[in-house]
From TrEMBL:
The lineage of its organism: Bacteria, Pseudomonadati, Pseudomonadota, Gammaproteobacteria, Alteromonadales. Residues 1-147 form the PTS EIIA type-2 domain. GO terms for molecular function: protein kinase activator activity; protein-N(PI)-phosphohistidine-sugar phosphotransferase activity. It comes from Shewanella cyperi. InterPro entries: PTrfase/Anion_transptr (IPR016152), PTS_EIIA_type-2_dom (IPR002178), PTS_Nitro_regul (IPR006320), PTS_SugarTrans_NitroReg (IPR051541). The gene is ptsN. GO terms for biological process: phosphoenolpyruvate-dependent sugar phosphotransferase system. This is PTS IIA-like nitrogen regulatory protein PtsN.
């Protein structure tokens, strides 16, 4: 799957959310602003429910929060680069500064897993990660991740 099919430029942002809860709220607000049929609360609850099962912080400053929604037909992605890393209960106990959030239709479990795996692999590329962290604005961040 081409990343640009699920990640819009408007869903890519550099921000300073301050906490895990605030960054999940930010992701929810960004997604609902671009997809008006979704409520920010519905998205937030989906992301929070997954986090309660265990942190999606995969280490190396990266988190891949994700959730399933009955009300969508295609996956939706949001990319956030935190100006200051935040505590995220990651597996390596390190703070997180890159978050790639994925919202998927409830009935597309296999696609969900393959998209998560592809994104984790991309974010494990040290060169891409370095470029993401150097990105100065939303447009540059989007270009790096989709390039």
């Amino acid at each position: 799957m081409e990343l640009s099919t699920i990640l819009r430029p408007e869903c890519t942002t550099c921000a300073t959310p301050g906490s895990k809860k605030k960054v999940l709220e930010l992701i929810s607000d960004i997604a609902s602003a671009q997809y008006p049929t979704l409520s920010s609360q519905e998205i937030f609850e989906s992301l929070l429910a997954r986090e309660k099962m265990g942190s999606t912080g995969i280490g190396n400053g990266i988190a891949i929060p994700h959730g399933r929604l009955n009300s969508i037909e295609t996956p939706i992605a949001v990319l956030v680069k935190c100006e200051e890393a935040i505590s995220f209960d990651a597996i390596d106990k390190q703070p997180v500064d890159i978050l790639f959030a994925l919202l998927v239709p409830s009935d597309q479990c296999q696609q969900h897993l393959s998209t998560l795996a592809a994104m984790a692999e991309k974010l494990n590329d040290k060169q891409i990660l370095k470029q993401l962290r150097k990105s100065q604005d939303d447009a540059e961040l989007y270009q790096v991740i989709t390039g």
